[in-house]
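All the exercises in this workshop are built on plain-text protein records. A record pairs a protein's sequence with a compact description of its fold. The structure tokens are whole numbers drawn from a learned vocabulary of backbone shapes. Once this layout is familiar, the rest of the handout is easier to follow. An example says more than a description, so a record of this kind follows.
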Amino acid sequence: MVGTVAAVLLASAGVAAYAYGGDIPRGTRVLGLDLGGKSRSEAERLLSDAVRPRASEPAKVELDGKAVTVQPADVGLSINVDRTIGHAMKGSPSLFGERTVPPVIDLDQAKLESALREQLDPTKLTLKKPGISYAQTTPEPTYPQAGLGLDPAQAAAAVRTAWPTGETAMVPLVTRPAATSKEQVDALVADLARPAVAAPVTVTADDKSFTLSPAAIAKGLVFRSDDNGQLTPALDAKKLHAAAAKEFAKVEKAPVDATLKLTGGKPVVVASKPGTMVDLAMLGPALLTVLRNPAPREVAATLTTQQAELADEDVVKLGVKEKVSTFTTHFTGGASSPRSQNIMTVARAVDGAVVQPGETFSLNGHTGERDYAAGYQDAPVIVGGKLEPGVGGGASQFTTTLFNAAYYAGLEDVEHKPHSFYFSRYPAVIESTIFYPTLDLKFKNITPYGILVDTSYTSSSVTVSMWSTKVYDSVKTVYGPRRNISSPPTVHREAGPKCITSSGLPGFTQDAWRVIRKDGKEVERKKFTWRYDPEPRFVCGDEPA
């Protein structure tokens, strides 16, 4: 009897030794791989080898009935071998069956949500997000409504389960409420949005200070709702700075970019200067902490040194060293006439402009609106096919001069429009009008070098020159003959300040080709065509009976 018991004990000990041999209990499988009885290091090596081919395989997803894929690298999707083996080491052995241990899957849920949303039809997402905006300084809430949306946790669980075995994860859209409720929106209005604009905030920076008005605060305080309808207040420091630019200027000194200027007939670099600016990244959170408080309210700001965006070495690399084109047009009336003054004003505004390689220059964008506030006067302009006084008249003369300088520099014509009538002071076809904001002149610097725009004027002419590094041997214009010539009609207009007489000019159509040569070869022959309307002979007064 004693011998029998001993034999049973020995047998049991042998079974136990077998069952618990190695670090991984017998019968343990991960992704179909038998790891039972293996040491930890051996099990990690075997599992790593087995899952390596899956590492770069995209996750297949049926997203709201649509088959899409997600790249593992884009969402941090991988099998965590170390943690998976750690789980496999725990638990009891199975002598007569199998014990399946699911793999531990690493996944960035936020990145997965973003990747799936990019592939969703946005019209399918009917969840209405909450919001708070300002009508001047009055907060206006937008209340959320439940609707179809993506459940990020459900999507992540489905991908974690399906991807390791190559199956398709089923991710439907589900009806969800917004993360922020109507009551919570009302609470944000009462607790923050309304008191934030109830009084100004004084900002101190070293020994100086400035004031943020309620109107400026309303521009800078934003309430952002994410895709799940979670509404969060934040300070948009750039919007706040733009809304209170004059106040910030009381304590700031903006950095000055390096630039170029002509000295002694040669382009030289004008050194950049660092500035002292309010640290907006620190100011935003500080403001949020006081906006709920009653007046008086004050926050401290930190001033930091800010380097110019364009450093001296950046300007040197532009390779601006020689004049590559120049063009002059002439005008009458002397320097004191309103039209001449407008030409000189726009010329001064553009003088010294630097166009980076690959950059598109916009004349409207550079000067802004050419109005009385900017120093422009009334002078003749073409309005509806008639010459009438208009602010900024004469700017088209400069526009034509600039267009030709860019044209003969070999730059790319992006946008221009010739005049409806022909004026002999301009080259036919190769000229351009302008009218803010509907008509613009744009050209693109397609060379590898920077362009410095130099303007100058006399009492009877305006000149635009382009400085850079010469790329082309020559840029010339070849004209075709004028055709479809039409005589000007006589038009009587009501006498008055809007009526400007003219002698009339014929209309015609003409072609012009820009011919560019480089390294001894013709590299471009671009055709420009324009039809000029006959300019009527305008007479102020009724037609004789």
